[in-house]
């Protein structure tokens, strides 16, 4: 038996996390995480996204993973605000979202950019965070026309000011 010396508590936490991931893999959870990256996408997700992009029928879409499938949870009407959108995200659960952001450029031109937001609050369950993180790129590829991506673990990371900055 030997004793490991750690420089800091965070270094020990990193080692503990590696051990945990190894155990999860031994129990078969690794295969489930890999399967999550090939998660099914409900056709309604693509249809609603196309309506948002082409017809501007919606201001935002919120997507939820349920029963190994990404599905539309909520649609926001064109009149809804950014505050309405952020209030629609659950405070303790992960979600994907698309937001159609209208803005005026410095040259006084009206423009719009479609944001993809990966919402993963710190208070959500670790398993949920893992499933959403491993499925994000696959799902995002299904939505042709995303212009800006944001990842947020806290409302301050997706404030209106940040969205405005990223749009320009």
From TrEMBL:
PROSITE patterns, alphabetized: ADF_H
GO biological process: actin filament depolymerization
InterPro entries linked: ADF-H (IPR002108), ADF-H/Gelsolin-like_dom_sf (IPR029006), ADF/Cofilin (IPR017904)
Listed GO MF terms: actin binding
UniProt keyword Ribonucleoprotein present: no
GO cellular component assignments: actin cytoskeleton
Domain ADF-H: 38-168
Keywords: Actin-binding
Nucleus keyword on record: no
PANTHER family: COFILIN-RELATED
Homology family: Belongs to the actin-binding proteins ADF family.
Name of the protein this chain belongs to: Actin-depolymerizing factor homology domain
Organism placement in taxonomy: Eukaryota, Viridiplantae, Streptophyta, Embryophyta, Tracheophyta
